[in-house]
Design brief:
This protein has about 525 residues and is of the alpha/beta class. It is built from eleven helices and 24 strands. Helix 2 runs parallel beside helix 3 and helix 4 packs across helix 5. The structure holds acarbose derived heptasaccharide (7SA) and calcium ion.
């Protein structure tokens, strides 16, 4: 049968649409990778007085926009009239939104009308609203009108003979407040409320609380209904040791568990792998966050932060919760790192507007935006230096940062742009680097003495910028040849030399004679120098 021309045109159009749809379907709903997020509250914001918190947000909206934030993470909008006290710790609280009992938006943060006013002011300042939502549990002790789930019919976790039948994840505390998110009554009711936030409260994204308490697939289902392209981020705060011994994640890294959740939910995820390194590692170990992963597909899922309303201090009552606070001397370094590296950075309200770090953070936000740093930007760490030395490839500029580092020489072409905290923070800019190529360097005819070894030193940062103390160590081969492979920027001629250097004294150095060795990385895969 002869097919009409129309048939083939229609088929081609269908293919094109399918490919466009595919292209449009996000691998991860991270907002496009250029966001800078402000956490728009702290632990005591619901107790703010005399102004209600939503009034503070309305007043601050223009400044928040001018400071360069593209999104604001708002507290849970649902009414929470709970109150609790912990005599052992001498603390009390409630009303922060995480033990809500109804979808009513008149909360401790302000009235429904004040919420709409705040979001309107933020939207006109160019700041999109991301709402914190808490589907894992609700306070069933208080009467509700908009959400009525009577006990029974497997709507609650504790409604089942085997609670696991009515819960897709962990319980919050003893689980008595946990909802059965898989129930055909519960899941659609949340979809309806998320659409309400989208249509009537300008919700452009959602922050999912306590995602350990339900499945990532549930979050994906809700996001497909809310807006398949919109930003979402999950709070998966669960150390490997908290998974059952039989669960693969018990033996995996924080990064692996976070990436698994992001892959299954197609949402971004707070970078608790970085937070764990900030807390327990040295500055050099900060490279091991999800945002510093060698793969762009991993980096782009990370939403980085220094502290939040749980981990950090908060102005006011008891100083907030401070479960896992980063000590003050490291905070400016940590903000420099997250704002000048991949992932989507989040700034904690008090650091910006209460504790005087705003000027530095504004400078860092401007540097990030001018350089064109995005969630999936490449980043190269130079481990031969102390502290953290990293070069982030923005689309417009290369940003070199040195934190608590002994880096002393920088290559030509790098312009210093920031020097803070008594030289603990240094930042340079350079033209975008060309892609790197693995290049093997050989040094021939070398006879290092006892306690000596052979190194390669040269103009690029990766070869120590001609500083013997940060040259690259080579490995011994055969016939007095020592070799090493390093990634070097292509499309340019690079000069380098062989060195014999004492292992115990970086100043005891024997240089290869002139001329310098030359190589054009990418054009040739190796280069030989000889003593
Ligand atoms: O310890 C910190 C870290 O140290 C590091 O060295 C460790 C880390 O692993 C380690 O390497 O992190 C651990 O500790 C974290 C903090 O507890 C854990 C983390 O998994 C664990 O590894 O994080 C969990 O707790 C956070 C607060 C959660 C995380 O998702 C979760 O993983 N954060 C979010 C969740 C909630 C709850 O929605 C919010 O909690 C956070 O703001 C939000 O960001 O059920 C009825 C009921 C009974 O079950 C109880 O017995 C009864 O007492 C009700 C009553 N519970 C009350 C609580 O006792 C009271 O504290 C409840 C109604 O109100 C309060 O609960 C607060 C909670 O304290 C507060 O943090 C809740 C509701 O108001 O709001 C907040
Ligand atoms: Ca649960």
């Amino acid at each position: 049968m002869k097919r009409s021309l129309l048939y083939y045109a229609a088929a081609a159009a269908a293919c094109l649409l399918a490919s466009l749809a595919n292209a449009a379907a996000p691998t991860v709903r991270n907002g496009g990778g250029e966001d800078i997020i402000l956490q728009g509250f702290h632990w005591n914001s619901s107790r703010n007085s005399p102004q209600k918190w939503y009034e503070v947000l309305t007043r601050m909206a223009p400044a928040i926009g001018q400071d360069g934030f593209s999104k604001i993470w708002l507290p849970p909008p649902w009414t929470d009239q709970s109150s609790w006290s912990d005599p052992a710790k001498g603390t009390s609280g409630g009303g922060e939104g995480y033990f809500w009992h109804d979808f009513d938006k008149n909360s401790q943060y302000g009235t429904d009308a004040q919420l709409k006013q705040a979001v309107a002011a933020l939207t006109s300042a160019g700041v999109q609203a991301v709402y914190d939502v808490v589907p894992n549990h609700k306070n069933d002790k208080l009467p509700a009108t908009l959400v009525r789930w009577p006990r029974g019919y497997k709507l609650w976790r504790d409604d089942c003979t085997a609670p696991a039948q009515c819960d897709e994840g962990d319980p919050f505390m003893n689980g008595l407040a946990d909802l059965n998110t898989a129930s055909p009554e519960v899941s659609p009711r949340f979809m309806q409320e998320f659409r309400n936030l989208r249509d009537n409260y300008a919700a452009k994204g959602l922050r999912f609380d306590f995602v350990r308490g339900y499945t990532p697939e549930r979050v994906d289902l809700w996001m497909k209904d809310f807006n398949d392209q919109a930003f979402c981020v999950g709070e998966l705060w669960k150390s490997p040791g908290e998974y059952p011994a039989t669960d693969w994640r018990n033996q995996a890294s924080w990064q692996d568990a976070l990436k698994d959740w992001a892959d299954r939910s197609h949402c971004a995820v707070f970078d608790f792998a970085l937070k764990e390194r900030l807390q327990n590692g040295g500055v050099a170990d900060w490279r091991h966050g999800l945002n510093g992963n060698p793969e762009a597909a991993w980096r782009q899922t990370a939403v980085t932060f220094v502290d939040n309303h749980d981990t950090g201090y908060s102005p006011g009552q008891y100083g907030g919760q401070h479960h896992w606070a980063l000590p003050d001397p490291l905070r400016n370094l940590a903000y420099t790192y997250i704002l000048l590296s991949p992932g989507t950075p989040t700034v904690y309200w008090p650091d910006m507007y209460d504790w005087g770090r705003g000027d530095l953070i504004r400078k860092l936000i401007k540097l990030r935006k001018d350089a064109g740093i995005k969630a999936d930007s490449p980043i190269r760490f130079q481990a031969q230096y102390s502290g953290l030395v990293a070069a982030t490839e923005g689309s417009r500029q290369q940003v070199l940062l040195a934190l608590d580092s002994d880096l002393s020489k920088v290559p030509e072409g790098f312009t210093p742009v920031l020097d803070a905290d008594g030289q603990r923070i240094r930042v340079w800019l350079a033209a975008p680097a060309t892609p790197g190529a693995a290049t093997t360097l050989h040094c021939d005819n070398v006879r290092p003495g006892p306690g000596q070894a052979v190194f390669a030193v040269g103009a690029p940062l990766a070869l120590g910028a001609w500083d013997p103390a940060h040259a690259i160590a080579l490995q011994p081969g055969t016939q007095n040849r020592w070799s090493g492979t390093v990634s070097l920027a292509t499309q340019q001629s690079i000069e380098w030399k062989c060195l014999i250097r004492s292992l115990s004294n970086v100043n005891e150095v024997y240089w290869q004679g002139d001329p310098n060795n030359r190589v054009v990385p990418g054009a040739t895969a190796e280069s030989v120098g000889s003593f």
